[in-house]
Amino acid sequence: MFLGNGEDELLLPNKYIPEGLEEGDEIEVFVYRDSEDRLIATTLQPYLELYEFGVLKVKSAGKFGAFLDWGLEKDLLVPFSEQLHPLQEGESVVVALVPDVETDRLIGTCKVGQYLEYERIPFAPGDEVDLLIYERSDLGYNAIINNHYRGLIYYNEVFQPLTIGDKVKGYIKQVRVDKSIDLSLQPQGYYHSIDVNTDKILKTLQDQSGFLPLTDNSDPAVIYSTLQMSKKAFKKAIGALYRERVIRLEDDGIYMN
Prior knowledge:
single chain, alpha+beta, five-stranded antiparallel β-sheet
């Protein structure tokens, strides 16, 4: 079938034609160049669309660069010039889907920073956002925010395992005068974070028959492995629960009243 939008026409191969599709029907397709460099439509859904960021796996590496699985029959090329290091088969890597200015083909690039937005920052402190961890810096982890912006999570504020390619929920801590964005993995605002963490402690206490072997002197790593929160957040939350007489604090741990 040939598809048109009133101006352009392109081919939808037989293998992609849904059963019952008739002339005049509307259909949503993804447009890209096939192995013979022709514009073609497909009903397959790629893992990334133009100027989106994501984690893709390397299927092979050859003389032109690395080829990544992006959900279509034709693999996505990441030329050597768009790699930060030589990509290897089986490796998972954070890339952006961008047009090649010379060929008009879609390619992947590991140099994602140049495609992020650094102006018109729409966030306020406390906003919840989606994060994609894409690199480590001297200060912490750089993350892509809501598929458009860059932010930083400082190492001393990371209380959970993070690896490149992780997708996590985060919170805007502050937007600086230079438009750089500080991020947190914990909810912002005293009462908000207290509520979240007290709920987590109470649920864990209920699951553990009303007792947790944690105190003010517990190792921060033990607190995090048990409750997924920092020691500072833990102390604030148990203080709030103690003042409400929901728990009692003993030398060996926390008991639910």
